[in-house]
Amino acid sequence: MSRPFKIPESVLVVIHTPVLDVLLINRADAPGFWQSVTGSKDELHEHLEGTAIREVLEETGIGCGPGMVLKSWGLQNIYDIYPRWRHRYAPGVTRNTEHVFGLCVPEGTPVVLNPREHSGYRWLPWREAADACFSPSNAEAILLLPQFAQ
Question: Nearest 5°: phi and psi at 96?
Answer without folding.
Answer: -130, 145
